[in-house]
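step: validate -> pass
step: tokenize input -> pass
step: predict -> running
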Amino acid sequence: MNELRELMALCQHEIWSHWMEYLFSVSTYNRDGSVTIPPNKVARWAEQLKTHYVLLSEQEKEADREQADRVLVALAEYRENTRAVESFFERECIGEDGFHPNGLGYKLIAQETESCK
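step: predict -> pass
step: emit ->
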């Protein structure tokens, strides 16, 4: 579960980084190190903050979907990697009776050892 949490944190950071890159690209850098966001962007985003997702324009929804796709890809990769580990232990560590020779199931073994051999 901790791996999944870290993966989700990574995705959220990438989404935030992508957003900040865009925000800075449309903003003006000031001499004191601050940035000024154009008034039209402030007005637009302030309005979006108050708008429920279902009421967004199709273009705005699509932008959110693109970010959701990042999370879905990461989850699919996580699931595939989890299945690969489980498959390995089923194939390599489990006897015909469905148990490891020491009597433990493969999930417990996977957590306790790097290899069953």
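step: describe -> The chain has one domain: 2-112.
step: cleanup -> pass
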